[in-house]
Amino acid sequence: MRQSCWGETRQQNLIAPSTIDAIWSRHIVDSAQLIGFAGDEKDNRWIDIGSGAGFPGLVVAALTEREVWLVEPRKRRAAFLAETAATLGIGDRTHVVCGRIENMRQTAGIISARAVGPLTELFGWARDCSTPDTRWILPKGRSAREEVATAEREWHGVFHVEHSLTDPDSLIVLASEVSRR
């Protein structure tokens, strides 16, 4: 698996080569910290948009009992995600959708997206997957506060920004009750 994963990383550029040596903190712990913002597992379904290499979706599925939907438009990456979920023994509750989030009609208690797009676009793309009770957990790096300010022009909601545990300069947007103005 390890060799296969690194081979796939090189072939598909799953993660930046500069972050391979820091994969534990930069990708795995960075993803795992999001679970703490999700609350209890009563809102069991989690949708991860643009799952790519599986961060944070595969990490969430591996560390919780949640039903996780990984939405990835690129076929090779979607195949990698499905194979990895099966190898990890979490394929029974990890669903890989090869497509765009805009075409999905599954709703979720939690929606995440890491390095996918601006908040205004994410909310628009995934509006059919959210309910008023959906909690959005969106790592945004240094631009989080600016993105929230921009999003508030088009979207109502409760927005909060938290610091990342893995990088003091990175921020995570937490949003709920999101609806278009």
Topology of this structure?
Blueprint: H1 2-12, H2 23-32, E1 45-49, H3 57-63, E2 67-72, H4 75-87, E3 94-98, E4 110-113, H5 119-125, E5 135-141, H6 144-151, E6 155-163, E7 171-180
Brief descriptors of the model:
181 residues, alpha/beta, Rossmann fold, 7-stranded mixed beta sheet, 6 helices, 31% helix
Short characterization:
With 181 residues, the protein is of the alpha/beta class.
Tell me about this structure.
This protein is an alpha/beta fold. It has a single domain, classed as Rossmann fold. The chain contains six helices and seven strands; from the N terminus they run H-H-E-H-E-H-E-E-H-E-H-E-E. Strand 1, helix 3 and strand 2 form a beta-alpha-beta unit. The longest helix has 13 residues.
- What Rg, in angstroms, do the CA atoms define? 15 Å
* Global structural class: alpha/beta
- Count the domains: 1
Measured between the Cα atoms of the first and last residue, the distance is 47 Å
What is the CATH domain class?
Alpha Beta
CATH superfamily assignment? Vaccinia Virus protein VP39
Strand content: 25-35%
Q: Stretches where pLDDT falls below 50 for ≥5 residues? A: 1-6
Task: Describe the sheet with the most strands.
Answer: 7 strands, mixed
Shape: globular
CATH topology: Rossmann fold
Series of secondary-structure elements, N-terminal to C-terminal: HHEHEHEEHEHEE
Summed up, the helix count is 6
Number of strands: 7
Mean of pLDDT: 87
Judging by the overall fold, what is the CATH architecture? 3-Layer(aba) Sandwich
Assign a percent range to the helix content: 25-40%
